[in-house]
Amino acid sequence: MRQVLKNPGGSRLRARTVIIDDPGPLEAYLTEQSSFAFLRRGEGFVALGEVARFETDSLDAADIWWDNTRQEIENDTELFGVRGTGPIAVGSFAFDPDHSSDPSRLIIPEIVLGRRGDLCWMTRVFRGDALQQMPAVQPPPMRPAGIAYADGGMNGPAWESAVAEVVRLIQRGGADKVVLARDIIAASPEPIDPRWIVRHMVSEYGDCWTYLVDGLVGATPEMLIRLEGGLATSRVLAGTLRRSALGDSDGTALAAALSTSSKDLAEHEYAVRSVAEALAPYCHGMSVPEAPHVVWLPNVMHLATDIAGAVEPGPSSLALAAALHPSAAVCGTPTHTALDIINEVEGMDRGRYAGPVGWLDSTGEGEWALALRCGQIDPTTPDEIHLFAGCGIVADSRPDEELAETVAKFVPMRDALEK
Q1: For this structure, is 50 an active site residue?
Q2: Distance between CA 113 and CA 26 in Å, rounded?
Q3: Closest CA to 312 of 285, 289, 287
Q4: What's the rounded Cα separation, in Å, for the pair 104 and 39?
Q5: CA-CA distances (angstroms) from residue 155 to 152, 158, 182, 370, 398?
Q6: How far apart, in whole angstroms, are the C-alpha atoms of residue 47 and residue 113?
Q7: pLDDT tens-digit profile of 89-138?
Q8: CATH architecture of 2-418
Q9: Is the pLDDT of residue 54 over 60?
Q10: Do 102 and 140 contact (CB within 8 A), yes or no?
């Protein structure tokens, strides 16, 4: 664990939140260095700079650090009871900290520009006195040029063989479900600006949560946990069909095929059960729909279930994320068995792919999505980005179909790089 304080010592940290006029598209304020985003349907926030960060291998340790730190911040606000106002912490966590070279991190940004409905605000965290000055709109980022792709940990045929191996393990009773992922590497002659990807995702995948944290950038359709006003909600996605799979012009036949697929329904049920069972100890009442609905995205359709629970006082959104991760939607079931198979067969370091990404405020409320449909830029190789995609493997999975599903899931990031 490592704590880094910017400008340590001196006076106590202060946070000042003021109501501002609508600043326009929030993503236009992202800077080249030390900027963060969490956006959906025009709402959410962008954040600039940082006053402190905590690097760790544990969500629970990060939660304790934030609880201790936020109590030391003097909070001066024009808004009370509005989720996400005041000081916040932005975080991104490794999928499996025991097998990741990229540490988890929780960061207190210096400036936050936020919007909820018609309400817009700015929060600044500082020591001593600070002018409450609006940051400037930034020049538009440049589109990556000359993108070329290469295999990551495995090429397509090798990954199909890995899927076949996992299917055999499942059929022999080694697990019920294993989520297997693969990566490809996109390279450019010049450094890749993640802000370009953010702008594309906000425009083309507005129903997803677009995020940017320390080089991890993408737009995920899956909310691991949201906590607001004592109500915890989780959107579970598992079971996928490519929009082009049946050549269906309006998608209705495709949605019907997905919602009646025994393979996809079984995969989805494992994911729903894992979240519901992990969340139940923290709730005094829960709602778990009996059947999933279909979420339509430009490239794929997913089976989705929205779980809600009335949470007992005490745990923060990050503590709940720690209890839920890794769910069967990104790992498999039983959890430890699936994780062992992933580490043995997958052949790559997931880093922060498929880990929780999001934020929490000083009351503990917040949102933690799963870092899917994403890529990660290593600061030592800024002209490359690793793209990730995964599939839930069950007993009747077909390797060729699973490979095709990963190709479809790469589409959002590939389009963001190329268009």
Answers
A1: no
A2: 7
A3: 285
A4: 21
A5: 7, 5, 9, 25, 17
A6: 6
A7: 999 999 999 999 999 999 999 999 999 999 999 999 998 776 678 999 99
A8: 4-Layer Sandwich (3.60)
A9: yes
A10: no
Question: Can you say whether residue 366 is alpha, beta or left, with left for phi > 0 and alpha for psi between -120 and 50 degrees?
Answer: left
Residues making up the chain, counted from first to last? 419
Question: How far apart are the C-alpha atoms of 330 and 351, rounded to whole Å?
Answer: 13
Taking the CB of residue 247, how many other CB atoms lie within 10 A of it? 8
User: Hey, what amino acid is at 156?
Assistant: G
Q: Which of 50, 110, 160, 177 is catalytic?
A: 177
Catalytic residue among 27, 50, 222, 365: 222
Asked whether the CA dihedral 334, 266, 374, 234 is positive or negative, the reply is negative
Report, in angstroms and rounded to the nearest whole number, the Rg of the chain calculated over CA atoms.
21
Per the prediction, the chain carries an average pLDDT of 93
SS3 131: coil
Indicate left, alpha or beta for 87 from its phi (over 0: left) and psi (-120 to 50: alpha): beta
Rounded Cα distance, 104 and 387, in Å: 18
Cβ atoms of 366 and 317 within 8 Å: the answer is: yes
Question: Mind giving me the DSSP string for 173-238?
Answer: TS-SEEEEEEEEEEE-SS---HHHHHHHHHHH-TTSEEEEETTEEEEES-EEEEEETTEEEEEEEE
Tens of pLDDT, residues 14-40: 999 999 999 999 999 999 989 999 999
The confidence score (pLDDT) of residue 77 equals 87
Estimate to the nearest angstrom the gap between the alpha carbon of 117 and the chain centroid. 22
How far apart are the C-alpha atoms of 379 and 215, rounded to whole Å?
A: 8
Angle (deg, nearest 10), helices 262-279 and 317-324 = 130
The β-bridge relationship of strands 366-370 and 223-228 is: antiparallel
- To the query of whether residue 222 is one of the catalytic residues in this protein, the response is yes
Name the burial class of residue 246, with classes exposed (0-12), middle (13-18) and buried (19+) by CB atoms within 10 angstroms of its CB: middle
